[in-house]
Amino acid sequence: MKRSVDVVVAGLGVVGSAVADELSRRGLRVVGVDPRVPPHRLGSSHGETRMIRQAYSEEPLYVPLVLRAYQAWRDLERRSGRRLLFEAGGLVGGIPDGELVRGAEVSARTYGLRLERPDPEEAAERYPFLRLGADQHLVVDPRAGYLLAETCVSAFLDQARAAGAELRTGEALVGWTEQGSGDGAGLLVRTSAGTWPAGGLVLAAGAWTGRVAAAPALRLQPVRMVQHWFRAEDAGFDPRTLPVFLIEYRAGKILYGFPDVGSGVKAAFHHGGRPADPDRARAPASREEVAAVREALGRHFPSARWRPVRSEPCLYTLTPDRHFVLDRHPASRRVVVAAGFSGHGFKFAGALAGIVADLLAERRPAFDPAPFRLRRFPPGTPGGR
Length: 385
Ligand SMILES: Cc1cc2nc3c(=O)[nH]c(=O)nc-3n(C[C@H](O)[C@H](O)[C@H](O)COP(=O)(O)OP(=O)(O)OC[C@H]3O[C@@H](n4cnc5c(N)ncnc54)[C@H](O)[C@@H]3O)c2cc1C
Description:
Number of helices: 8
CATH superfamily of the largest domain: FAD/NAD(P)-binding domain
Bound molecules: flavin-adenine dinucleotide
């Protein structure tokens, strides 16, 4: 039996590392465990860059959360002395009735965010390398940009350690039981290295959360997604030239990408992918996977000749409605589940950490996480893809 702690955080990807940082800074004794050594390439928080944007296409409800997240990233930059967030701007293009452009418009209108709407002539002048179909629209989210993914995770982990957290790699959560009653009540958290008496537990194990949570109502489908890097042989696409971009070229079919911040222009599809066992999702990209993204990139950025540099698989953890799960565990108020980020959770990490900490403290969070309830899917809800 190990010494008792306030909270065990299981999983130290971007979400768990942010939670460990937040809880430690609130003065709690925190132990973080992860069987791997983050930041690593086997989960969901790797691949050089992650997008952040304000006019949130998925749902206006994310706007207050992302505004809080911007503050949290700037705060982490101040504390760590590292630059993490680059507001390179964001091009949001596609069919006018598609989820991207319409969704960005709705969020911007709802929250009074600035959204630029260049006409085709102005767009051609500002972004001469971009080609959209005749029926496609472009809006520009000027506050969008990218985060340096691995640096963000390292910064959270370093800050958590500096605030007193004990971060233990090579140690996996195995399970937990409630023990005691009244003032002495708590958890016995079992890991691969022993048992921690703890006041609370956070399940932030990404694509592995479904395995450790033991909650049938939790509907999570890990999906293998591949990110690809390309070099433009005859053009530079650094962040001064190329904003981040999202293009819905057919209903529900989204190509997105990032400027070259070192390894080339990164591009990927936000759709497709195949259900995967998170322990076996490392299969290298197939020639067809690379060719499909290269073709879409060439279609929308036709002035460059795109040479593939490398590809890397990664994991989305999908919920049936693609919204997050941020809730107490059905079997214990002392256990908080933070998972199911459905391919868009990275940008929110600092804001999510505040909500998790409030739930553990039985305080009402400033952002109401009701839309992210674990039990919102009635039995029989189709999940996955
Ligand atoms: C290709 C790709 C592109 C994306 N693009 C964006 C984007 O542009 N913007 C954005 O906001 N989001 C994006 N996302 C989504 C975002 O990256 C994820 O939502 C986020 O990284 C999830 O972080 P996490 O901490 O939940 O998971 P992870 O980073 O996977 O961390 C989970 C951790 O839990 C550990 N673990 C596993 N089992 C156990 C156990 N038993 N005990 C303890 N620990 C365990 C794992 O080793 C891992 O370190 C993208 C995701 C992918 C895959």
